[in-house]
Amino acid sequence: MKRNVIWLLLLLFFAIMVSDVNAYQVADSFSFPLDSYVVGSNCFGRYGLVIAKNWHLGEDATAVAGTNVKTIAKGIVKDARTHTGYGGMYIIEHTLLSGEKLCSIYPHMDYSSFAKKVGDEVAKGEYLGKIGTTSQNGGWPEHLHFGIHKGAYNSVNYLCNGANEWSYAGYTGCISVLDDWCNPTEFINAHKSMTQNVPVKFTDSKTVYYYSNNQLWPILNEAVYTLLGFRKGCTALIPDWNRLVILPATSRSSYSIRSDVVGSPGLPPGRKISYRVNSATCLMGPYDPTKLYALLNDNGQIKFHHITDWDKIYKELGYDMNGRDIVDIPYEFLQSYGEGESIGSSNIYAIVSVTSAYLAYTQVSTLNYSRLLTPPYNLQADTVDNQSIQLTWTLPNGTDDYNIKIYNNGALLNNFSATDSYIISGLSANTTYCFQVSLFCNSTGEESSKSSEVCATTNANPPPPPINWIIEDNRFTTRVDSSNN
Known about the structure:
By secondary structure, the chain is mainly β. The protein has six helices and 31 strands. It has helices at 2-25, 184-190, 222-227, 310-313, 331-337, 348-352, and strands spanning 26-27, 55-56, 59-62, 68-70, 75-83, 87-96, 101-110, 121-122, 127-131, 143-150, 157-160, 163-166, 171-172, 181-182, 198-202, 209-212, 215-218, 245-247, 274-279, 293-298, 301-306, 326-330, 377-383, 389-394, 402-408, 411-417, 421-424, 432-441, 454-457, 469-472, 475-478. Strands 1, 3, 4, 5, 6, 7, 8, 9, 10 and 14 form a ten-stranded mixed β-sheet that branches. Strands 17-16-15-18 form a four-stranded mixed β-sheet, with no helix packed on it. Strand 16 (209-212) and strand 17 (215-218) form a beta hairpin. It is flat and about 90 Å long. 30% of the residues are buried. Residues 8-24, 265-271, 352-372 and 480-485 have low confidence and may be disordered.
């Protein structure tokens, strides 16, 4: 009996240790391996630049010998030694929140500066070592080759065009091998830690979320979006879509997405949200960041109700006691609805007993705003001549990755990189044309609504020159008649 108990305790201890190790290894956010990460011409997937008929499987970041190299995320060191042609090199395995594994690669380092060994657990941003000189890094100009390989650590050779290639090589002669690697910059940008209390949208969906308490909460509608502080100025409820953080669809599994909806009182039963005021994005005011509120419907009046006696009634109201049901809101959201009667042990049933559907619940249409892009504005059409009209407009902020689309009577006329003017040529004389413009995002495929329509009329054709008159030097002159001489 004692032996069984001892074995049980040992197994339990081992399970706890493994659980703690796995929890430590989970890479919940990533950062670049250098404080100043600048990629030169040898980017990911570059073909034939350094090695003929080979694709580059990472990025070459500019760095001089002695520059510190850091870990990009939590993980375990799987390889830390000198490799022929690579110098000092680390391979670190990471586990994503989704359970997926990948490995980060750090060649061309100075092995004598290595601070970690195989089997070491590392956190994000830990010092690994330094960039090596040409004599230390495998014979290359000083730089860091940085790569991210998909899958768990597995150092093997494979055949490519009849030759052996290492699974963690820097180049490949087979284009299909690129599929086994991530574009490092794109991956890091998609998995950076995100600031709390920001609006978020994925590229494959139009639903807008509020990132709070390390979770994504769907936003009910545009009005709630503006009341959360994401608007232009403090007086008008005009949404500011430039505040929206766009995330790649592939990163969706890295986030905890709630079915609860921010700002939805009086809806069908489901999980409940409580609110806590601890930020003020636009309006400042007196508030207590320790108070928790329920958003209730008081005879048609939606108000925030302070939950008192938290330890006694919070769970009774249906909330999660670990605090995961709390959404942080700015003071202006609280002020916009106002405060109703506080909820305590003495009046909980008087306020909530009519129906539990008074709280904020699931099963509603969330903010599904199709006009996330603001169209160009101040559109003007000016006649140039009998065949041309010039369009000018003002671009919204942040249009580096956008195209302008021009429409003529509703039909697409042209599509080009974002600028603030365009001359349309080849038009018919003395004809009225009407135009609209829109903004098109190249990375997400989304298009804004069209601008207001403007019209202009081309000039009439000039009259033909009179008989016995000719045009010389852009002027009419008389024809010389030699018979009168």
